[in-house]
Structures are given as C-alpha cells and as structure tokens.
Design a protein that fits this description.
3% of the residues lie in helices and 46% in strands. The protein is mainly beta. The protein has helices at residues 6-11, 163-167, 269-273; strands at 13-16, 29-34, 36-40, 59-60, 80-81, 90-92, 101-102, 115-116, 121-124, 128-133, 136-141, 147-153, 174-178, 183-190, 197-203, 212-218, 223-236, 242-254, 258-268, 279-284, 293-297, 309-315, 318-325, 335-343, 355-359, 362-367, 374-382, 385-394, 402-411, 414-423, 431-438, 444-450, 459-465, 479-482, 500-503, 511-518, 526-535. The N and C termini lie far apart (53 Å). The protein has a single domain (14-57, 65-72, 90-535), classed as YVTN repeat-like/Quinoprotein amine dehydrogenase (Methylamine Dehydrogenase, Chain H), CATH 2.130.10.10.
C-alpha cells in the first residue's frame, strides 16, 4: 500500500530567514531547512524489495531546460583540438577487472529499464563499487566486478522511514563515497506527490551493505528541486571529529514548469555522520543564472580553506564562481559570495542546448545537455596546488558536439583559469555527456559518450593528459571503452544526463567511469558499463 506523505509534511519544517538582498549580493532568497525523520535502516541484505513505482509503459525522465541569456550563433572555436598526436597512456587498471564490467541495464542482473535516461552515476569505496541508475542501485566487488547486493529500488533505503522518501522512487540519484569519513552517501528526490522532498541516507561504515541513517528536507509544494548534484567538502575539527559540509545544487522549477533559478545549499556533515538530523542552509539565485555545480573533493588532502565550497555555472564565455561558507553554530550567518567571472575562450552551445546528436540508421537525435556544466566539478589539493576541473558540450568544428574542458586554480581565495581545451579531433564522432577528474599525479581523465549518423552507435570512450604535460589544453588520443551496437529509436531523445568519473580512494590513481551505451536498436533498452582506468606512469 502506498502511504500518503501528508504526515511527513506536517513535521518537516522550513525556517525562512529574511536577509536584505543587498547584504547577500542580490540573492533572491536565503533559507534554513531543518531535517527530520532521522532513523536507521536495516542492513541492506535485510531490506525487502519494497514498493516501487514502475511506470507502464516506461517513461522518459523530465528535464527542465535552462534558459541562456545569449543567442547562440555559429562561430569558430579558437581552442578546438583537431588532432591527437600523443598516443593514449590511459588504459585498464591491472588491479581491476580488464575492460571493466557491466553495470545495471537492460537484461543485466535481472534489471528492468523503467526510465530513460539512466542518470548513471557511481563511486568506488575501499573494496566496493556502488552504481545508481534510475531507479535502482547495486553494490559490486571492486576487485572482481561480481555483484554483492541488488539491484534494489532506490527507495529501498528509506523503508520504514515514511512519506514520499519511502513510497516514491523518483530518481535523479547521486551516490558518493565520503573518503575522509569512509561512508557512503545516497540522495534522491521525491516529487511524485507533494511536498517535494530531498532524501538522504548515509551508511554506518565503509560497507555499503550495512545500515543507513536517513533524513529528509522539505522543499514545499511549489519549488521542484530538479537535477540535484552533490559535492563533499570535508573538514576535521580540532578534536578530530569530521566536519565540513555536504554541498548540493538544484535547478528550481516553479510547480515543475517555470525555471526560477539555481539553488546552492550546504548540509551539516558532522551531524549527519553522527546520527543526528542535520540542518541545511540554501541560497537561491535568480533565473538569470544557469545550472550550478558544487566542488567535490578528490583525494584526502583538504583545501587550504575547508570551511567553504565553490559553486560554478557558465555564462556567456565565462565561468561564474560563488563561494558558500556555512556557519553551523549560527546558520543565519552563513554567506554566499560571488567571487568572479572567469573569462574563457568563446563557445557555442552544442545543439543550442537541445538535441541534434545523430545516430546510425535513424532520424532520431539525442539530447546534448549543452545547457549546463556536466557533473562533477572535481577539486584536488596536490602538494599545495589546488585545482578544479569541469566540462560541458559545445558546437564542434567537425561534428555536432565536442567537449569543452577547463582546469582552474585556487590561490588565496582567488580563482583563475590555468588551461582550457575543446576535444574535437576530426577522426572522432560527436562527443559529449562527459565527466572529468584528476588523480594524485595531476593526470586528468575525461570519459564521454560518442555517436554519429553513419558508423558509430552510442558508445563510451575516454581520453586524458598527464600532469607533466605543458598546460596547452591538449588531450591524448582516444581510448575505446565500450562500443555501442544499436541506436535509440524514435520518440526518445533523452540521453546522458549523468555520467561519473571518480577516483579510487585507496590508490588515488585509478579512475572509475560509468556511463550508458546501446547494445541493440530499441527504446528503453539502454545498458551501462563500469570502467576502471589509470595512467601507467602514476604509481
């Protein structure tokens, strides 16, 4: 039986704190949310399959388009990399299974496709890899690729919690491994009915098959929190206790239809890790800004100022940077500061932000997702050199789409552009839907999807560059990862909302990439792959 979430609404409170707009740099709204429902789940193996909302037939996932203040016009890309003279040194990790292993997808592990796209994301822990797609997750053995648990519906973690988090399985999921605390962090939203909820579950240990502490935040009846993204920026208190924040971004749509603007939030990580219902502080920006991404720490070396996190969006040939500094002893004293507009080489959004990516044997085109930065904004402090890498899709000189990527540097609180590039070699198909990260050696890996209208079905490739290379914005040749063998057929353009490039917390040099591909012509029949890779020079 599906229980009403009305009881949860009566207890989830939103405390609105009024702050003059001028004092907050023109922010439209600042709020403090107090979560409730703090409770522990059973061990994962004890959790029943539970109630799952299975659409009949399968359904495309809602995508709220992000307006852009500039009209796109075709223009040459001044930094397009139209050749890849350096052979690839990014390949399979010898400590992990070959070319990777299958993730959840059509016919794999008894999984049934319910939605498209799969919103594929995942992360590596100490011995496990967890992948979450719409609307199920699974736990794999990192060394062998064998299935340890699942597939389980996403809302299984909230069994016994009550309300929409328990009864709805609405997706837009993120799973991360908190490296300093060695805990798994799961979050998805509940939007099938009102109020709109953001649901959290944090593991008790590094074992993803154990129990989870659950809590939720209520976004009310009108602010639809679309496209949630999670960044973990930890800290250590003087007494050795974990602190810092779980930082989130949302695209807020009024009643699910009209873009109101992005929202930057921080959750009290210390309370969440100690089994206490945490608070969340949020700043809302106007609709003149696009989709935000929070910085997410790779490695275990803290930033020079771990009390804050950065949020970035793109504008007209700029990266817009904010700094969110939560104050958990006095939440209303938290601040969001606009730092800079970092100028970048001119670009035109692929497909004007919509769909135009061709496939073989069909007129059906795929979405480009070029109206936003792609997850993750990966942050690393390497020997005092602090950097962030991020990417998005732009119009290519040789194809419908290419990948624009940036490496930023952080110094004394200032953000500057260190290098940038557009990966668009003429030998490739249209590239997009990428995810990027940096290892302990400063090497950069970029995973992405490919497709063209002649001979390349939607599949997965990767490229990268060494930390010792000059900062010239050049990537190595492509590494084939998983070739597609079919096209996504008519009336379904949704593709690649999420992919995830993460770094192994044990060796800090193995990259783990997961994304979708198509194995045969069809609709709602996607597959996914989990691929461990590393540079041979990073030992």
């Amino acid at each position: 039986m599906i229980r009403s979430s009305s009881w949860l609404f009566s207890f989830l409170t939103v405390v609105a704190v009024s702050i003059p707009a001028a004092a907050q740099g023109g922010h439209k709204e600042f709020e403090v949310y107090q979560s409730v429902g703090g409770s522990w789940s059973k061990n994962l193996h004890e959790i029943a399959k539970g109630a799952v909302n299975i659409p009949a037939p399968a359904q495309p996932v809602f995508l709220g388009r992000i307006p852009f203040t500039r009209t796109d016009t075709d223009r040459p890309d001044p930094i397009a990399q139209t050749s890849a003279p350096v052979p690839s040194t990014l390949g399979p990790s010898s400590a992990t299974p070959g070319q990777g292993f299958e993730g959840l997808g059509s016919g794999a592990y008894g999984f049934r496709v319910q939605y498209a796209p799969p919103d594929t994301n995942g992360a590596a822990g100490i011995t496990q890899y967890v992948q979450w797609v719409n609307a199920s997750f699974a736990v794999f053995d990192k060394a062998t690729g064998s299935l340890l648990a699942g597939p389980l519906p996403g809302n299984s973690l909230w069994q016994g919690f009550g309300g929409g988090c328990e009864t709805n399985n609405d997706g837009d999921p993120i799973v991360q491994f908190d490296k300093l605390a060695q805990r798994w962090v799961f979050t998805q939203f509940s939007v099938s009915n009102k109020p709109y909820l953001v649901c959290f579950a944090i593991s008790q240990t590094a074992d993803a098959t154990g129990p989870y502490f659950r809590f939720a935040f209520n976004f009310g009846n009108s602010s639809f929190p679309d496209y949630p993204k999670l960044g973990i920026m930890p800290n250590i208190m003087p007494n050795g206790a974990p602190a810092g924040g779980y930082f989130m971004s949302f695209n807020i749509f009024w009643n699910g239809f009209f873009f109101q603007g992005p929202r930057a939030c921080a959750v009290d990580r210390n309370k969440a890790l100690t089994g206490q219902a945490p608070a969340m502080v949020c700043f809302s920006l106007s609709s003149s800004y696009g989709s935000l991404l929070p910085a997410d720490l790779d490695g275990t070396t803290l930033p020079s100022d771990p009390s804050q996190d950065f949020f970035i969006a793109y504008g007209s040939n700029v990266l817009q940077v904010w700094k969110l500094k939560p104050n958990w002893s006095s939440p209303s004293s938290s601040t969001l500061t606009r730092l800079a507009d970092v100028g970048v080489a001119s670009f035109t959004r692929a497909c004007n932000g919509g769909k135009c990516i061709p496939q073989p044997g069909t007129s059906q085109q795929l979405d480009s997702l070029a109206d936003r930065l792609m997850y993750r904004l990966a942050y690393r402090n390497r020997g005092g050199t602090e950097s962030m890498v991020v990417n998005h899709s732009v119009k290519s000189t040789t194809a419908a789409s290419a990948i624009r990527w940036y490496e930023l540097r952080v110094s004394s609180g200032n953000i500057s552009l260190f290098q940038q590039g557009t990966f668009a070699p003429p030998i490739t198909s249209p590239d997009g839907w990428g995810s990027i990260a940096t290892d302990k050696c400063g090497d950069i890996a970029l995973g992405y999807s490919v497709s063209n209208g002649t001979d390349t079905f939607p599949g997965i490739r990767a490229t990268g560059r060494l930390g010792t290379d000059p900062p010239d914005g050049q990537m190595q040749a492509e590494t084939p990862v998983k070739a597609g063998s079919g096209s996504q057929l008519p009336n379904l353009s949704r593709w690649g909302d999420y992919s995830s490039m993460s770094v192994d917390p044990v060796d800090d040099s193995t990259f783990w990439f997961t994304s979708e591909y198509i194995a045969s012509n069809g609709t709602f029949n996607w597959n996914t792959r989990i691929i461990p890779m590393k540079f041979s020079s990073c030992q």
